[in-house]
Amino acid sequence: MKRIQPSGAQYRRKKRRREAEVNVLRGSLDAWVKKLYVAKNQLGDENHESVTVVQDDVSIPVNTHLDIVRGNQSHNSIPGDADDFDEVSANAEANAVILNDDAEGNNYDGNFIELFCDHDLGRLRKPISTHLVKFLVQQGPEKFQHNEGPFAKREGRSLSKHWFETLSSNGECFQRKWLIYSPCKQAAFCFVCFLFSKCESSFCNEKGFRSWRKLNPRIYKHEKSPGHRNAKREYLDFEARLEKLRVIDYELQRHISSEKKKWRLIVERIGDVVYLLSRQNIAFRSHRNEGVSKLVNENAYENNSGNFLEIIELLADYDVVLFEHLQNARKKPNKVDYLSNKSQNKIINLIAGIIKKKISSKVKKAKYYTLMLDSTPDISRENQIAEILRYVHISENKDVEIKEVFLGFFQVSEKNAASLVETGIEKLNDDGIDINDCRGQAYDNAAVMSGVRTGVRKRILEINPEAQFVNCENHSLNLACVHVAEVHPTVEVLKSKVEKTVKKHCETRWSSYYNAVEVIHENFHEIIYCLEYFEDDKFSSETKSDACLLRHSLQQFTFVSLLKFWCPVLSSVQRVTKRLQDPKIDLIQASDDLDGLNRIIDLKSEDIIKNADRSASEYCEEWNVPLTRVRQRKMMPGESVKDCGLSAIEEMQRIMNEIANRLKTELSERSGRVSRLAEKFSFLLKLDSIDVKNIEHLKTLKRQCEIFSNYFETDVISSSLYEEIVDCITLFRSGNRNFPKNAKDFLASLVGLGCDVFPTLCIGYRLLLTIGYSIASCERSFSKLKQKKTYLRSSMSNQRLSSLCLISIEEIFLTSEVKEAVVQTFVDSKVAIGHRNK
User: Fold this and answer.
1) Dihedral of CA 106/110/114/119: which sign?
2) How many Cβ atoms from other residues are within 10 Å of residue 677's Cβ?
3) Residue 233 and which of 187, 448, 559, 738 are 20 to 30 A apart at CA?
4) In whole angstroms, what is the distance from residue 462 CA to residue 467 CA?
5) Number of Cα atoms under 13 Å in the Cβ half of residue 364
6) Residue 724: how many CB atoms within 10 A of its CB?
């Protein structure tokens, strides 16, 4: 017998359905009245009445903050490279929808950002707001179909792309535009029913249809059901109204469009001023916060408003847009004008954020990178840590470039390795960069950075064993010279006199030794004449005494000998130091330069010592300087110092030989890590010497490939690398091609053939070019830091400082596309929030 009364489960299901409908409608009247009031205020017309269009029993309330009309694509699209700005556009659109929903009083917890980025309808949760429905209809179902797969399998079956097509009675093929697939839910949905229908079909609810074995009857039944037909009719009516711009808030849309145009012109001009001051390292504000008050009160010209507002006011004298904007700011001082310090920070951070996203996208595209960190105290005694990434960029034209990019400054609570690693990895994660793709580390020789037990390099190696560490070779060369200068106390005479010459030396400056010594060496006679001039009676006794003491100290055989010795030695070191500061060279070239410096010191040290003795002797003979040797002093009472009775020339030869030997030892020890790591890559640049018909050569090559793959297990397979090298050698020799001499040219040749021809070999060269050897780029960023944060700007926040330095250092990324993205995002956010924030 058929049941007349509903069962308990059926009754509870109906009850839940009624409660859900009540919850959807709860507060709708209050929200509608509130939006009507806001719409009237925004339009500035007290007699304006908002119209509610009712069609097919579907009432759509006024949308006071809608900013997603897609009739004109230029309103929401960002010109330029789509790959670089898809995420920015998606975030702006999602934020606009979320702001509209919040203004309406709805709390939708669907993942809007992923919806716009992935075009996955399964990320939405019902009920769907009117604003979002309108945006989805304007987008159309094609963007959300995912009809090319891949499709998830269930019970041995899966959806296929053939289900997105249907055959008519005459055999013609048509697309099922209403059918979409959600990768995150791994289910099928009906686009029109999901938006406009309240039926209980699996194609309409949040879970979607997943029973692939029942597709054959269910999909045909659904598209012929009355609920689907009604939803399709509502969808077509809604789409037609949008195309004709007959939406409910047409007048408000027109008002918002005009507001966008006006604020777009204003923000473009304000943004250009921000770009100028950021690039030129000029302060924005004066020492007092009186800039806005001056613009409000046009008679208050006695106060300085700061560079930013003064430039704005100067441009307003020649620009109608800024002139009208300042007039409105004076008439309505409490209204938004985007001239305050908060607006400056917002624009600066927005520019830096977009530039950083563009840099991050290029680093992620390159995959491999080297992490370089260095720290310095700023004017406020706060420790600022510079973050630099080195990667290989392959352009669309197949040009290969080595890039070192600046990501910003950050601070740590404690200057220890654990805090540095934790904060550094957190910053990388915020930028969307994976620490597991790091293939190199480059730091200075400080224990907290380079420590083998608890240093930063050890902690990162524990996280990523393939992040090869290379200490900064510029620091190593500098430290080698510092330690060699401490070999004998006599050498300190040179250092002490250098400090009183035209240029002082600094132990942390890589070129300061050569610059200081080179000035004295080239102008030694002029310096002596100058000191003799200051010994004249017309100067004070203190001046005469200092000049006399300094002249007698300089006119010594010891000082002159060391000056003649150090000048050619430091000249060779200076050339290598300058060479290592170039980010365009690779690890093997840096190792070759250091080995060459070692050979130069080894081969030329005897000649340099002889020339130094001869020049010093000739000078002493010319100026009547005695060659007597200065005896060593007793260190303690009663302690005698043995003296072997060497002459002054023999003693200086002993000292200079000791310095030369110590310098060679220091260079060998400090460049050993680079040499050992470069040796692992060296076989990649010796392919022209390999005979593919020689068994011994092939065995050696195979062994080298195995050693190389052990260092980079996740990136390189030794067998694939070996086969590709053999094929590459054969190809180059059969085509009579010349083997490139460096890794960059070799990679460019392989990329020209196609990255898929020798993929593993390309990875090998990319790794070679990626590994860094110097943190000179970090030192360059410190120069910008000192220009930005000065004594008069010592209270600047760290976020503003980092953003300004990023804009200034990476101004190459400040293209017209980035400026357009900044203006578009800023204007969209202003209109979306309804002018509520200043």
Assistant:
1) negative
2) 21
3) 187
4) 9
5) 14
6) 20
Average pLDDT estimate for 103-120: 53
Residue 823, amino acid: V
Q: What is the DSSP letter of 408?
A: E
Q: For the segment 174-194, what is each residue's pLDDT rounded down to a tens digit?
A: 778 888 888 888 888 888 888
441, β-bridge pairs: 371, 469
Tokens coding 536: 């004249």
**389 Cβ contact partners less than 8 Å away, ≥ 6 residues apart:** 359, 363, 369, 370, 371, 372, 404, 405, 407, 433
Angle between helices 491-498 and 512-522 (to 10 degrees): 90
- Cα separations in angstroms, 704 against 12, 678, 699, 729: 72, 13, 9, 16
> Quick one: pLDDT band at residue 60, thresholds 50, 70, 90?
very low
**Residue 736 or residue 484, greater confidence:** 736
Q: Are 766 and 587 in contact (CB under 8 A)?
A: no
Q: pLDDT tens across 187-239, in order?
A: 888 888 888 887 777 788 878 888 888 888 888 888 888 888 888 888 888 88
Q: Token pair for residue 831?
A: 């209109």
Q: What percent of the chain has pLDDT over 90?
A: 12
Which residues lie across from 157 on neighbouring strands? 154
Cα–Cα distance, 544 to 536 (Å, whole number): 7
Count the residues in the chain.
838
Q: The tokens 């669907």 sit on which residue? A: 110
Paired strand residues for 405: 389
Pairing of strands 153-154, 157-158: antiparallel
Rounded to whole angstroms, the Cα distance separating 205 from 222 reads 13
Amino acid identity at 84: D
With a cut of 70, say whether residue 706 has pLDDT above it.
yes
Mean pLDDT throughout 430-440?
Answer: 91
- As a whole number of angstroms, the distance between CA 435 and CA 369 comes to 9
Residue from 180, 208, 165, 167 nearest 119 by CA: 180
pLDDT in tens, 295-351: 555 544 446 778 888 888 889 889 999 988 888 888 877 777 788 888 888 889 989
Tokens standing for 284? 């924005």
Residue 360 vs residues 351, 391, 456, 590: alpha-carbon distances, Å: 14, 11, 23, 27
Residue type (1 letter), 780: R
Q: How far apart are CA 50 and CA 32, in angstroms?
A: 10
Lowest-confidence segment of 20-29, 599-608, 807-816 by average pLDDT: 20-29
- What is the DSSP annotation of 509-575? -TTHHHHHHHHHHHTHHHHHHHHHHHTSTTS-HHHHHHHHHHHHHHSSHHHHHHHHHHHHHHHHHHH
- Mean pLDDT lowest among 100-114, 427-441, 526-540: 100-114
Nearest to 352, CA basis, from 831, 826, 799: 799
Do 323 and 317 touch, CB atoms closer than 8 A?
yes
The Cα–Cα gap between 467 and 454 comes to 16
Cβ atoms of 832 and 67 within 8 Å: the answer is yes
Coil, strand or helix: which one is 626?
coil
369-377 and 438-443 strand pairing:
parallel
Identity of residue 364: K
The C-alpha atoms of residue 772 and residue 404 are separated, in whole angstroms, by 9
CA gap 217, 222 in Å, rounded: 9
For residues 450 and 471, is the Cβ–Cβ distance under 8 A? Answer: yes
Pairing of strands 54-55, 58-59: antiparallel
- Both tokens of 204, joined, read 């309409």
